[in-house]
């Protein structure tokens, strides 16, 4: 029998991310989460953001573990997970008020990051917000020694994974009708980039 998965990084960052999301995802609306993983973020955030309907999504291989978390939730504000793969040309999803992703951008390849921003531009409503959490480089430079070491570890694990340059991600966002609204410094040398779909 499968054990319920647990992502320590979710437990470490969920409160600080929630504190930011409370200032961003203010109006009632629908959220699409890209790369939900275990589903722990969806469970935690919806407990404290009751005005949001949360749509988790990830590769199909993640769904069995995610459902073990979602099945314990007593409210009905989390939908069943969607199969989301950035390499798919289309997603079976309606346009959303908000899109959120955490710790996905540095795992996927640069080409896949470009595809992800294309999907976000397609499925985000006019004026909607995309909150993108994780580490980023600026002007080709690491923001800390720990991020430099983390990048080495990522590339050893998968040669296509790496910390992406902010300027490259910004160009992908701009190409898909989004402008930077905020760049928020977070603990452990992470950021939350907030993109707004041009209205």
TrEMBL record:
<keyword id="KW-0489">Methyltransferase</keyword>
<dbReference type="GO" id="GO:0032259">
    <property type="term" value="P:methylation"/>
</dbReference>
<dbReference type="InterPro" id="IPR029063">
    <property type="entry name" value="SAM-dependent_MTases_sf"/>
</dbReference>
<dbReference type="GO" id="GO:0008168">
    <property type="term" value="F:methyltransferase activity"/>
</dbReference>
<dbReference type="InterPro" id="IPR010342">
    <property type="entry name" value="DUF938"/>
</dbReference>
<protein>
    <submittedName>
        <fullName>Methylase</fullName>
    </submittedName>
</protein>
<keyword id="KW-0808">Transferase</keyword>
<dbReference type="Pfam" id="PF06080">
    <property type="entry name" value="DUF938"/>
</dbReference>
């Amino acid at each position: 029998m499968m054990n319920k998965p647990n992502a320590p990084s979710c437990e470490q960052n969920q409160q600080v991310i929630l504190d930011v999301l409370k200032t961003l995802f203010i109006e009632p609306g629908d959220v699409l989460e890209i790369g939900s993983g275990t589903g722990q973020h969806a469970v935690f955030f919806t407990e404290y953001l009751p005005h949001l309907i949360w749509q988790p999504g990830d590769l199909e291989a993640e769904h069995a573990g995610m459902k073990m978390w979602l099945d314990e939730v007593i409210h009905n504000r989390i939908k069943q997970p969607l199969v989301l793969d950035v390499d798919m040309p289309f997603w079976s999803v309606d346009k959303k008020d908000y899109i959120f992703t955490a710790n996905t951008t540095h795992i996927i390849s640069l080409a896949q990051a470009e595809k992800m921003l294309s999907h976000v531009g397609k499925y985000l409503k006019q004026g909607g917000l995309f909150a993108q959490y994780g580490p980023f480089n600026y002007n080709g430079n690491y923001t800390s020694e720990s991020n430099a070491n983390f990048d080495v570890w990522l590339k050893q694990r998968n040669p296509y994974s790496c910390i992406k340059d902010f300027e490259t991600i910004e160009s992908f966002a701009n190409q898909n009708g989004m402008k930077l609204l905020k760049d928020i410094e977070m603990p452990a040398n992470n950021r939350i980039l907030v993109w707004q779909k041009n209205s």
